[in-house]
Design brief:
homodimer, 335 residues, alpha/beta, Rossmann fold, Dihydrodipicolinate Reductase, domain 2, six-stranded parallel β-sheet, six-stranded mixed β-sheet
Chain lengths: 335, 335
């Protein structure tokens, strides 16, 4: 990277890639540019490129990995390809921002994180929540001690997705934990910043053995707890979270994973997420601007990971989701 | 009971009895009358009686049980006396409204419920939440099918009570499940109206082995779940609950166990709880009027239990709290 403009290669021309690129249009001109797009169908890649100002389109991810104009690759394909594409891009010398979950299990995740380290390249799991200004304020608030000792975290993510293909199919690395449940897990990980000493789980599986919903109890060494709820079996619900200390609380209303508002001890804080140049597919996707911005700044500073979602935290979340799946009996072919 | 005025004997002159009697002052004249009060100290009983218009005071619960003017006894003593006093009053031919928990375990509860049946007397566990108009509307809403299939219930009750004597002391039947956790359990029981097929628990105990907090996952045969959170280790928090169906939701904001407000599919419903003639010790205690009213109406109709909190539901809640304590390792001397 020779200029201050981060040149993006985009893997996958689906909904999430659209939202990511549209979110980047809300950032100052000259900071980010989509320079190449790869999709399984060349036509999709071209169409996507036209939309976001990229002149280069590929029908192969490998071709994109060899494009010398690409500084960093955003991986927005289906979950089962995340590890393979991350390894491919890192091996080709590219920085990587990979959609969550960065892999299907800890074994896969380790192989990616090790390669990133070995290649001395930037790698970040796109746990976009962590880069929201309100999440940064939550971290600062906890660090300030104003909550006292944190004793309890609750979070609920429940929306009607159990019948969506990527969720219900074992062959696609399905299940709700890896899609929405992990947002509740990452919040607990951010708050406690350590592994729980005990993980207790129950849930409901579909006929392919993929989890349609579950509840996860995390207990930490100081006695703090997190009680997490996720489900793909309900209609759209109020997905909120709370962080309760001995002295004060933080309440994050719907949508806790991409919040525009939260109540702190000092009062309500708001942060409006902007609209992008092109319509978003998902809620508050404009907030993907924050992870793009974090990635750019980290890379400009020569960092190999993002402080808001470090490799250690990717491993922490994945260790927990591995254990959740183990207790529920959710098994992928690659496990 | 020969008149339409229910004549109450009050066991215990403490905070909760005060609130119950003050709540009854909000009901129409001539429906309820406190006719006798018993406390360990005669002076306390007299003082309490003066406050609530009772001319008879006893320093013995047994003496109260023999008072021919008493139709029904409200038991507002500490938890460890609930079974013994319920048995005493039933054996003396009195109807009983006993504070929750009605006993320390299922064995104790069964002995009371069996005696009530044998004596053909009214017995009700004072799970006052159930009698709130908003709870009645919740039941009706679920029965109407407007939520679709209920797939998820969440409830949180977390307030700083871990160091209160009745909570921390094993000899007093302590622990937070029996004091506040049971409110989250009774909500799940009301919504699903059946026993869960699996109960999964974790929590934190104090040095006497009493639970300072915990998380309870209930799984029902249709795949519905409840994720319940209770803690005595935090500051005062937003204690809310939600009921999520496949078609619609009900949200009960703080204080879910004695609600003045809830959001139904058709909109927000409010129900203001009145102030009593004397100040209350606890939140929304004016709402104890509803259980007094339910008890009176049931007795006038010749019923032996209250539909809103039936014997079956007392047993259901107690079966779950027994299992929660078993999994946590919370043991009482009477277990």
């Amino acid at each position: 990277m020779t200029t201050k403009c981060l040149r993006w290669g985009i893997c996958g021309a689906g909904k999430i890639s659209n939202d990511f690129c549209s979110a980047m249009t809300t950032l100052p001109d000259g900071e980010h540019k989509v320079v190449a797009v790869a999709a399984r169908k060349l036509e999709s890649a071209k169409e996507f490129g036209d939309k976001f100002g990229s002149e280069v389109a590929y029908d192969s991810y490998e071709a994109l990995s060899k494009d010398p104009n690409v500084d960093i690759v955003y991986i927005g394909t289906i979950n089962i390809n995340h590890m393979e594409l991350s390894l491919m891009m890192l091996n080709a010398g590219k920085h990587v921002l990979c959609e969550k979950p960065m892999a299907l299990n800890m074994k896969q995740a380790k192989s990616v994180l090790q390669l990133a380290k070995q290649k001395n390249l930037f790698f970040m799991e796109a746990t976009w929540s962590r880069c929201f200004p309100i999440y940064e304020k939550i971290k600062a608030e906890i660090a300030s001690g104003s909550l006292g000792d944190v004793e309890l975290v609750t979070a609920k993510f429940s929306i009607p997705i159990k019948d969506v293909e990527r969720i219900k199919e074992k062959a696609l690395g399905g299940g709700c934990m890896m899609d929405i449940g992990m947002y509740t897990v990452q919040l607990a990980c951010m708050v406690y910043d350590e592994m729980p000493v005990k993980i207790t789980v129950d849930g409901v599986l579909n006929d392919q053995g993929m989890d349609e919903g579950g509840c996860v109890i995390l207990k930490y060494k100081g006695g703090g707890m997190a009680n997490l709820t996720y489900s793909g079996r309900t209609c759209v619900t109020q997905c909120s979270a709370s962080i309760n200390g001995t002295k004060a609380n933080i309440e994050i209303p719907d949508h806790f994973w991409c919040p525009e508002k939260a109540t702190f001890p000092s009062g309500v804080v708001t942060n409006e997420v902007p609209e992008g140049r092109h319509p978003f597919n998902f809620i508050n996707s404009g907030g993907m601007r924050y992870e793009a911005d974090h990635a750019r700044k980290a890379i400009l500073e020569g960092k190999k990971e993002c402080e808001a979602m470090s490799h250690r935290h990717s491993e922490m979340v994945m260790t927990i989701t591995d254990e959740v799946r183990k207790q529920l009996g959710v098994v992928y072919d690659v496990d």
